[in-house]
Amino acid sequence: MRPVTIVGREIPEPLTTAPGDPERGRTLVVDRTRGLCLLCHAGPFPEERFPGNLGPDLSGVGDRLSPGALRLRLVDGRALNPDTIMPSYYRLQETVRIGAAWRDRPVLEAQAIEDIVAFLITLRDTPSERPVP
Ligand code: HEC
């Protein structure tokens, strides 16, 4: 585990030196066996059917939240909302509640967190800011 420093409601520093890859991030977000994001979130994923609605729609989230705020949300959303049902994806302690195979490691690797942050910041409401596919 890499050390993380929470500043206000953000983790301003990336967890890895290698920058996040938005394409890998998208793959993780829609992967129903890894991130499980779509269990609770809808978003601009037209190919994915039956998204959940327990959390906010991720469309435009890159306009609403900074990279540092997205990083904290993924690493440990309980720092933002102690009662959240969203899993803490890079918080070691929580892994004692899940299967033995996952003990002593976070749900997602540091690079996966950065990849997902890199993807989420591309989700804009303003069409002109959408990245060229
Ligand atoms: C078990 C349900 C659940 C899962 C799984 C889940 N989330 Fe969430 N998420 C939530 C809820 C509920 C919120 C609303 C805020 C809160 O609870 O504090 C939220 C909030 C968010 C926010 C802030 C959105 C905003 O507009 O403020 C982002 C970004 C986010 N989730 C991304 C993700 C990503 C990416 C994944 C997968 C890696 C994921 N979530 C998995 C339930 C979930």
Radius of gyration: 14 Å
End-to-end separation in angstroms reads: 33 Å
Helix content: 25-40%
Overall geometry: globular
Main sheet: strands, sense, barrel: none
Give the CATH class: Mainly Alpha
Please describe what this structure looks like.
With 133 residues, the chain is mainly α. It has a single domain (22-124), classed as Cytochrome Bc1 Complex, Chain D, domain 2 (Orthogonal Bundle). The protein is 29% helix and 0% strand. Helix 1 (22-30) packs across helix 5 and helix 4 crosses helix 5 (110-120). The model has no long low-confidence stretch (mean pLDDT 88). It binds heme C. The site of heme C has 26 residues, from helix 2, helix 3, helix 4 and helix 5.
Keywords:
globular; 133 residues; mainly alpha
Give the helix/strand layout.
Layout lengths: L21 H9 L6 H4 L20 H4 L2 H10 L33 H11 L13
Helix pairs in contact: 1-5, 4-5
The structure holds heme C (HEC).
The site of heme C has 26 residues, from helix 2, helix 3, helix 4 and helix 5.
Q: Summarize this, please?
A:
The protein is mainly α and 133 residues long. It has helices spanning 22-30, 37-40, 61-64, 67-76, 110-120.
